[in-house]
Amino acid sequence: MKMFLVAAGVGCLCTPLFAQEAAPKQESKTPLMVSFADLKWVELPERKGMQFALLSGDPQSGEYTQIRKVPAGTDNPLHSHSSELKNVIISGTWYTGADAASARDFGPGSVVMMPANWSHVSGCRAGSDCVFYQEGKGPFDFKPAEAPASAK
What is the pLDDT of residue 60? Predict the structure, then answer.
């Protein structure tokens, strides 16, 4: 019985140590502060005409945050992304939905969270360019939906 109590006591004392090791570590104690005028814009390789300004991470290999700029009148056909995306609309009118008929418009302040592999259409309505903040939970990709068998 004494051995059981000693083992239980050691287990209780060690548990907080293991919990601390498993806790997520903060990456930086330095705040990220960037003015819109200082953003460095790069053309999005997957979608010509669209631009992004990277804030953190790497959209080619893992999680990232960035600001996106999409020209007014841009229509993205049915497609999906391998990773979950979160968009917060800053300006313009962004639309998205499972198809063109069900797509909804989202203006400044709107939040659009898309699960990985969700097939959808999206784009920026005519009138003004769209700018939005984007968080990706993994590498960014643009996977066009396959055409129906009858269209091949």
Answer: 92
